[in-house]
Amino acid sequence: MELELRHLRVLCAIADSGSVGRAALALGFTQPALSTQLRRIERLLGEGLFVRRSTGMELTAYGAQVVSQAREVLARADTLGRRHMGRRPTAAAPTLRLGVTNTPVVPTLLDTLRDACPDLRVCVRGVYATGELLGLLETGELDAALGVDYPGLPVRHSSAMAHRAINTVPIFVALHVGHSLAHRVEVPLEELSEDTWFVAPDDGVGWPGAFYDACQAAGFRPAGTHEFHALDQLQSMIAKGLGVTAVQPTVRPIDGVLIKPLAGNPLWQRHLLIWRREAVEASVAEALHHHAVRVHRNLLAQAPHLQRWVTHAYSAARLPDGLKAASSRPG
After folding, report:
1. Domain membership flag for residue 102
2. What percent of the chain has pLDDT over 70?
3. What CATH number does residue 63 fall under?
4. What's the 3-state SS for the chain?
5. How far is CA 84 from the centre of its chain?
């Protein structure tokens, strides 16, 4: 076996996601196949690169050196590929045009970038659907975007773009404080079969299909639905007992609203950084990803309903790797 670019991408994917399973999902492999690939790479290099801990897959000191060099090699290979196709690599635009979907990281991320990257100017464009963000990236109207996809439905884009996972989190449910299931630590999805659901519209990458598939797997189709996604108004309607809705675990509930995990975690969402290779320098993409990961994990650590679930999941020894790291970090 000789080390190839695809092997370097495997190492970077595992390092970025902190999990062989999520890396496999992102790269289109099965988890056993990617585990075998990792063992072969480690045998070739003569030393272990990762250690499995309670927080997920962590790089060894040697592994950190290898992944750092792998990123440099991959960046240079991308540059060579662009030159080979007759295109000159372009510098990052004076202003980074960043598209964002419904994600809570934006205010803190922009504040963090202002301090960490003072020479980087960011112009934000809010868009509901990740599918629309992808279209704006493809046409060159955006340089980078914060979007989402879903396990089993990885985001698809042209070779002109790249993406990297920020985090993968379970989707929770928001319900009225007087709901009959308000006392539950976790809410079984099938016991919400008679509730009216507020369902966000098509996001172009798998929602609400993923929601309806989960309902079908639970043995029902919602009795009544409203298509709605404006979060402030949505919470007001939930607070009045008009229905329930799926939400990100980082949502801060208003008075009258409870945020609860769904039993068995039937719904997941992966948060992504997506960017145009020619429009965003590697160092800028690295900074965006690094700070987005930190901000998102801190938000998870500050969500009391999530931390209650984390404590419960720890006691049952079934907490997913992607959230163990967030649970161990201070706000």
Report:
1. yes
2. 87
3. 1.10.10.10
4. CCCCHHHHHHHHHHHHHCCHHHHHHHHCCCHHHHHHHHHHHHHHHCCCCEEEECCEEEECHHHHHHHHHHHHHHHHHHHHHHHHCCCCCCCCCCEEEEEECCCCCHHHHHHHHHHHCCCCEEEEEECCCHHHHHHHHHCCCCCEEEEEEECCECCCCCCCEEEEEEEEEECEEEEECCCCCCCCCCECHHHHCCCEEEECCCCCCCCCHHHHHHHHHCCCCCCEEEECCCHHHHHHHHHCCCCEEEECCCCCCCCCEEEEEECCCCCEEEEEEEEECCCCCHHHHHHHHHHHHHHHHHHHHHCHHHHHHHHHHHHCCCCCHHHHHHHCCCC
5. 33
- CA dist., res. 25 & res. 224, Å (int): 33
pLDDT at 2: 74
Secondary structure class of 147 (helix, strand, coil)? strand
pLDDT of residue 326: 45
Give the chain's domain count.
3
* Residue ranges making up the domain that contains 105: 95-169+269-303
Residue pLDDT, tens place only, 265-304: 899 999 999 999 999 988 888 889 988 988 888 888 887 7
- Identify the residue with better confidence: 72 or 192: 192
Structure confidence by residue, pLDDT tens digits, 242-259: 999 999 988 889 999 999
Q: In this structure, how many other beta carbons lie within 10 angstroms of the beta carbon of residue 331?
A: 10
